[in-house]
């Protein structure tokens, strides 16, 4: 994809991130942090693609580790956030 | 996620969306049947699931810090794979982005691990300031920047060495950066590092040219940095003070 288009996407998405924060009450900021943390595990998409096309053994090992790390981040993050939010519901 | 009642559903929705995105990306690239990928995801899933289920509520902050570090590390690894695989074929823009993702991912990884260690009281909670720390960290940022630019211009195999060096330096920087922060200011640091890991994901998306990664990473990056500012204001601290362990007066924020 064209580099300039990607940069444009980057800028628009940054603005969107700003808007999201504005609409969320302070009470939820901690789970929000945990939630966005889980979402940053989205890097798994990158690790999947680049590991799949990797040729050398070293790259495959690194890519494999990237997938493992990203999955821990992703799944762990969502479960942790869910547990945090469960506490809110009890109150 | 705009009210506590719907927040849980929102979390589930975003988790499912992520699952769909993973399947879609794998299908789109025709890599749905490579066992190595599934192996990695299953292993990571088991570790992540067990960790998150068993952690005590009071240990939550360090858990988030740890997860965050892994996410940053993953972005750094992606960049490393890209660089070592097809550097000579990459345009300058992608090379630059790759090295940048490497550096930010590295800082996130080591910084978050130190932060998690501090919260878990494995490391002293007091801010540790290395003599001349302010100057050292400025120097490191300058060197990192120079390496990134030099690496982006070079085309030959030397670049792998540059990449390794800049990863190493960024790991060291992450340690220095997190060690200087006192225990009470850790939440702010984690929020900042969270923003970094989003940024790292976004930039690694620029490297491989994946619009989804770019946009989602940027959302996390931007929301993280604003959240950091809100938290600073709530605790009546300036970000610069926090990063310096409050005693020092001057430091550049990267």
TrEMBL record, chain A:
Pfam family, one: PNTB_4TM
Keyword vocabulary terms for this entry: Cell inner membrane, Cell membrane, Membrane, NAD, NADP, Translocase, Transmembrane, Transmembrane helix
Catalytic activity: NAD(+) + NADPH + H(+)(in) = NADH + NADP(+) + H(+)(out)
Gene Ontology CC entries for this record: plasma membrane
Record membrane topology: Multi-pass membrane protein
GO molecular function: NADP binding; proton-translocating NAD(P)+ transhydrogenase activity
Primary localization class, coarse: membrane
Top-level division of the source organism's lineage: Bacteria
Stretches assigned to the NAD(P) transhydrogenase alpha subunit C-terminal domain: 7-90
One GO process term, biological-process aspect: NADPH regeneration
Enzyme class: translocase
E.C. number(s) listed in UniProt: 7.1.1.1
Transmembrane segments: 6-21, 33-55, 61-81
Places the protein is found: Cell inner membrane
PANTHER family noted in UniProt: NAD(P) TRANSHYDROGENASE (PTHR10160), PROTON-TRANSLOCATING NAD(P)(+) TRANSHYDROGENASE (PTHR10160:SF19)
Its biological purpose: The transhydrogenation between NADH and NADP is coupled to respiration and ATP hydrolysis and functions as a proton pump across the membrane.
Protein name: proton-translocating NAD(P)(+) transhydrogenase
Species of provenance: Proteiniborus ethanoligenes
């Amino acid at each position: 994809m064209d580099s300039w288009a990607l940069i444009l996407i980057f800028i628009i998405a940054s603005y969107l991130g700003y808007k999201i924060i504005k609409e969320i009450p302070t009470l939820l900021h901690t789970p929000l942090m945990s939630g966005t943390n889980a979402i940053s595990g989205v890097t798994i998409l990158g690790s999947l693609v680049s590991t799949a096309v990797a040729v050398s053994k070293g790259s495959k090992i690194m890519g494999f580790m990237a997938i493992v790390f990203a999955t821990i981040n992703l799944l762990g993050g969502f479960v942790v956030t869910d547990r945090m939010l469960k506490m809110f519901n009890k109150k | 996620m705009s009210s506590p009642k719907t927040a849980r559903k929102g979390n589930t929705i975003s988790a499912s969306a992520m699952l769909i995105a993973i399947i879609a990306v794998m299908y789109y690239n025709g890599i749905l049947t490579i066992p190595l990928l599934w192996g990695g995801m299953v292993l990571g899933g088991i570790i992540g699931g067990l960790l998150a289920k068993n952690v005590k509520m009071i240990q939550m902050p360090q858990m988030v810090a740890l997860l965050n570090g892994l996410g940053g590390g993953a972005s750094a690894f992606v960049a490393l794979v890209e660089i070592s695989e097809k550097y000579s074929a990459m345009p300058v823009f992608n090379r630059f982005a790759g090295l940048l993702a490497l550096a930010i991912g590295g800082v996130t990884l080591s910084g978050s691990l130190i932060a998690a260690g501090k919260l878990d009281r494995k490391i002293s909670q007091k801010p540790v300031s290395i003599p001349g720390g302010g100057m050292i960290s400025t120097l490191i940022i300058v060197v990192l920047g120079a390496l990134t630019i030099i690496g982006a211009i070079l085309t030959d195999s030397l670049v792998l060495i540059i990449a390794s060096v800049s990863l190493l330096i960024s790991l060291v920087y992450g340690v220095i950066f997190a060690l200087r922060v006192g225990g009470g200011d850790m939440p702010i640091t984690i929020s900042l590092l969270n923003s970094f890991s989003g940024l790292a994901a976004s930039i690694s998306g620029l490297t491989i040219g994946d619009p989804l990664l770019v946009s989602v990473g940027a959302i996390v990056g931007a929301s993280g940095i604003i959240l950091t500012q809100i938290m600073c204001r709530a605790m009546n601290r300036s970000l610069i003070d926090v990063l310096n362990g409050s005693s020092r007066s001057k430091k550049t924020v990267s």
